[in-house]
Amino acid sequence: MGTRVLSRLGPWCSRVFAVECDPNSDPVYFSLSKKPQTAHCSERQAFENIFGGAKSYSLHVCTDERFKRAMLYEELKSKFIPTLPRGCRVLDVFSFIPDVKNSLFRGFLVKGAADFPETASILDELVRRSGVSVCTYVQEEDSQQWWQHMRSKAEDGTEVTVDKYCVVPAEAPQHHPSTLNLIGNDVFYNVWDAYKVMEQCKEKMTEAYELLELVGQNLAQNKGGRFPIIAIEGLDGTGKTTLTRSLTAALNASLLRSPPECLSPWRPRFDSEPALLRRAFYALGNYITASQIATASQHAPVIVDRYWHSTAAYGIATAVSGRVENLPSPGSEVYRWPGDLLRPDLVLLLTVNPEERMRRLDLRGEEKTREEAELEANQLFRTKVEQAYKRAEDPACVVVDASPPPDQVLQQVLLLIKDKCHL
Ligand SMILES: Nc1ncnc2c1ncn2[C@@H]1O[C@H](COP(=O)(O)OP(=O)(O)O)[C@@H](O)[C@H]1O
Ligand SMILES: Nc1ccn([C@H]2C[C@H](O)[C@@H](COP(=O)(O)OP(=O)(O)O)O2)c(=O)n1
């Protein structure tokens, strides 16, 4: 497969690879060459760290078809990786064309499992699967050169062929590889893009079928009324529910939320699905909420507890790995508002320091979504969500310090609303 065309994006050997060893530092980048190249001492050391010692191999999901890609990746992550023998080291590995959108294939580099007979038979099975490629890494005797052996099934599916490439150092690309597939996989910029994802799984999930029916019934009305629409955003525990309730009473407003109540029964199901489906679920939820906002804003101001910015900020922060610096820069198209989604007049982002947020969450003591639980455990992720919120544009979020007592936060927000929405 190596020299043959792997996808519309070109052959395997033109790809760059990135192995993530530590979320707080740059990945180790390498590319492939037919001829050995001299590497600097530090580059040789980096290769030794990732390939040296116990035998290592990598698994890559490599198909252009986004639904199949998401499903295969989830299968590897939740079914294959947990079966690995204890003590194996698993690192995220990306293969991509530098700075080319939608060229990213995700995968895993596994170290210390190749000597187990069970692993060998699972790998043989994976090699024969379409959409997965399996590579092993070997060092030639008396040489410091690492080789990638890419195993793939022959056209007739019976035999396994091996393409060999030297692993050579590659420069870091301008954009972190995990940002390349955001659009259309982690964030959707029109309803039809998310709708198409849901259509692909309606056969296997009745929830998807019913969701599509609901979206279909709710798309007709998407124009705001004469009253202002105010969205309240922020991490869990920042006081959104408390504020939206008091604001609703103070302004005699309608209170809505995204995802809307009618989707609550299906939410746990979608929360346990691969990221592509989860994101499509929340994206479609925003369009149903938009239709409810359109009706409600004809009669009274509307307060919305979470809306599009939540969907985008969590989607981007989950997909972009490593450091906060890896997020797309401010001004990037990923922070734009979807053209076909009803826009709020004002978006307020509630912020409190991490200690106070934890104190509030402990006091509340409710069950959390998987992502919220991850957020709690992971300061880096939390910072990325907040940064993504702050980079959102048109409408941008107005940051509100939500650390004072509830009544003071309410007064502060009422003043803001008076100023920005003339209420
Ligand atoms: N301004 C505030 N000061 C102190 N505690 C607050 C404040 N706002 C909310 N809380 C408390 O913090 C917890 C989380 O608030 P909540 O409104 O449920 O947040 P969110 O909806 O953003 O998850 C609740 O126990 C709530 O009573
Ligand atoms: N409009 C929305 C709302 C929530 N989400 C996702 C993002 C996170 O995974 C969770 C957070 O929602 P959660 O219900 O835990 O938040 P609150 O408890 O309402 O503060 O849902 C979304 O993507 N889009």
Structure description:
The protein is an alpha+beta fold and about 425 residues long. It folds into 2 domains: about 5-180, no CATH class; about 190-420, Rossmann fold, CATH 3.40.50. It contains 13 helices and 15 strands. Strands 3-4-10-9-8-5-7-6 form an 8-stranded antiparallel beta barrel. A 5-stranded parallel β-sheet has the order 12-13-11-14-15, sandwiched between helices. The protein binds adenosine-5'-diphosphate (ADP) and deoxycytidine diphosphate. Adenosine-5'-diphosphate binds near residues 241, 360, 363, 405 and 409. It holds the Pfam family Thymidylate_kin.
* H and E order: EEEEHEHEEHEEEHHEHEHHEHEHHHEH
Q: Could you say which structural class the secondary elements and strand pairing correspond to?
A: alpha+beta
- Bound heterogens, unique: adenosine-5'-diphosphate, deoxycytidine diphosphate
Q: CATH homologous superfamily name of the largest domain?
A: P-loop containing nucleotide triphosphate hydrolases
Main sheet specs: 8 strands, antiparallel, barrel
Catalytic activity: dTMP + ATP = dTDP + ADP; CMP + ATP = CDP + ADP; dCMP + ATP = dCDP + ADP
Family: Belongs to the thymidylate kinase family.
EC number: 2.7.4.14, 2.7.4.9
Subcellular location: Mitochondrion
